[in-house]
Every structure is written in C-alpha cells, then in structure tokens.
Amino acid sequence: MTGALAVQNLTVRYGAFTAVCGVSFEIPPGSVLGLVGESGSGKSSVARAIVGLTPSRGAIRLGDTDLSAGPVGRTRQVRRRVQLVFQDPRGSLDPRLHVGDSIAEGMRGGRRSARVAELLELVSLDPRVAELRPHLLSGGQRQRVAIARALAAEPAVLIADEVTASLDVSVQAVVLNLLRRLQRDLGLTMLFISHNLAVVRYVSDELAVMFHGRIVEQGPAEEVIGAPEHPYTRSLLAAIPQVGERRLLSDDAVEASVTGDPAPPPGCDYRLRCPVGPAVRPGMEICETSDPAGGKDDRLHLAACHLAEPRAPT
Ligand SMILES: Nc1ncnc2c1ncn2[C@@H]1O[C@H](COP(=O)(O)OP(=O)(O)OP(=O)(O)O)[C@@H](O)[C@H]1O
Ligand SMILES: [Mg+2]
Questions:
Q1: Tens digits of per-residue pLDDT, 226-242?
Q2: Which ligand gives the minimal distance to the CA of 15?
Q3: Residue 99 · residue 119 · CB < 8 Å
C-alpha cells in the first residue's frame, strides 16, 4: 500500500467554526510537501484529519486506499502506514515507559530489541538510550526518539507537525537534517508542517501556503520562494529575518489576524491585511466582491489572488 497521498476538498469543522475549508493537494510517493502558515491557519487540523484524529469531510487517499472514513474504518495496517510526529515530544512519549519500550510499541513480530537498537542508530542516538526514561533526555533527543517511534511502524507517510518548534535553534538544524536524510534514505512521503517558512523551504519539494483554513498558494518550492505570487506568501518571506530587509508585515497585524474574526465572504479573505489590496489601493473592488479561488488553470504554481501574476523567478 503505497502511492501518492491525495487530499481533496478537505474540510474540518469544530462546531460552527470552519478551521479547514476545501483544501486539496497531492504528495507523490517519496516527496515532501511543506505546509506553511501562521498560527491558527489550520495546519494541524489538516494533519489530524489525515491520521483520523479529527473528523473531516472530503477525500483522503493513500494510493488506492481510502482514508476518508476516519479512524473507525481504518484497519491497523492502514493506520500504521501514516504516522504523525508532534511538536512536543513530551506529550508523545509515555513518561512511565523506557524509551525502548515506547519505540517497540508500534512494532510487529520478534527481534524487537535488535530493531529498537537499529532505529536508535538510525536517528543518531546511542542504543543504550533504550534503557532510559524520557525525562532524562534533552528535547532534541526526545524528538529523535519520537521520530524513531514513528518509523518503527514502517510508515509510507510521515507527517511532521512543528517537530522543531520546541527545540533550540542549534538542535533544530540537527533534527531537520536528520529528517531530510531519513526521508531520502527510506523514500518516505512526507507532509512537513511549520509556521516558519525558512524551516519549511529547507526540506520541501513542493510548498503549500495556508491562510484562514485555505491554501492560498501552492507550487514547486523553488518557484514559490523565488517568485511568490500571493501577497501573503510575500509577507511570510519578508518576515524571515534578513539583515537590512524591511518587514512587510508588522507583528501587530499578525496578532490581529490570529485573534480577530476572518473577513466575511464573498471577497478575498486576506483583503483586510493585504499590503497591495483594497486597504491601501483604490479601485480594487474585485477583492471586496469576489473570492479569488486558485486552480483556474493547469499550471503547477497557483495563487488564490486577483493580483497574482505569473512572473519569472528573481
Ligand atoms: N479541538 C478544537 N476545537 C475548537 N477549535 C479548534 C480545535 N482545534 C483547533 N481549533 C481552532 O481551529 C483553528 C486552526 O487550528 P490548528 O491547530 O489547525 O492551526 P495551526 O495552523 O496548526 O496553528 P499553530 O501554528 O498554532 O499550531 C484555530 O482557530 C484553532 O483555535
Ligand atoms: Mg499546529
């Protein structure tokens, strides 16, 4: 059971609140889709829907296997094939279990201790770590154990949700390099989630940018980074600290969008914050009246913006 992970028209609601609205993407086997967007944009909801932890609508397929039925309809075999690693390794490792037992939990058959040692070596940890309890490990070591634990199930798809967010910057790079190496060596299909575009661009083949529950731009990573078409993507790029560069978006604006209500339909959801839209430019009525749905043509790089213009990479 391998093949592309395909999500079509995925919608996640919590009561009356729509956290994910009509999200579609396809991750070819062995490649990495980076999902980026600010806090609250719906990234984790997408991840939880794919592994069946959150009810959703729409289609989720892994190759020929339908995952849309949620956890109840999934066999154990299917559940093993898609593994999720979370932000906080403290939450995903049972503090009462030795590290080795935590890793072995997801394994089939015999040779478990030998396999645990192999997995620990795979994530560059000393196999003797198996005898320890998680509280004796550093954050970076714990995150490696969480990755080893996910790999124990021999997944086809690994979903990494903010796996480096709780780590020191120096340790982040080590864990990112580890993930990239494992993804290539094991041929994993990966959904890599982070609010940090600098982190996402480092590991991803394709990028999808989320804002208020929707994907506003999607395409090959080097194109989205090199020639961003959506003003929101440009603001994320501008927010990556770079000496001598002005930030397009103030922290106040980010704060307002997290706590405030989304803009009402039918106009563009981003228009109130858009640095090139109707808030700053007269004559942009189209942004007020019409929802700029992406995917109007068959290009690989798409942006849901009335102002988006395909441009040559800079
Ligand atoms: N169980 C829940 N019940 C109600 N609302 C929820 C629930 N989980 C998430 N939400 C809301 O759904 C929206 C999307 O949340 P989600 O966790 O998917 O965002 P995110 O992009 O992963 O954010 P972050 O970068 O902070 O992890 C947020 O507004 C959040 O408050
Ligand atoms: Mg999240």
A1: 999 999 999 999 887 65
A2: 1
A3: no
Between helix 139-152 and helix 169-186 the angle, nearest 10°, is: 20
Question: Cα(195) to centroid of ligand 2, in Å?
Answer: 8
Residue 26 CB partners (closer than 8 Å, separation 6+): 4, 5, 6, 7
CA distance 281 to 21: 28
What stretch of H or E contains 84? strand 82-85
* Residue 18 pLDDT > 80: yes
Gap from CA of 41 to ligand 2 centroid (Å): 8
The residues spanned by each domain of the chain are 5-94+147-215, 228-303
Ligand nearest to the Cα of 214, by number: 1
Helix/strand number for the chain, H first, E second? 12, 11
**Protein residue with its CA nearest to atom 3 in ligand 1:** 14
Q: Which CATH architecture has domain 5-94+147-215?
A: 3-Layer(aba) Sandwich (3.40)
For 178-205, the pLDDT digits (tens) are 999 999 999 999 999 999 998 999 899 9
Which residues, chain by chain, have CB under 5 Å from ion ligand 2?
44
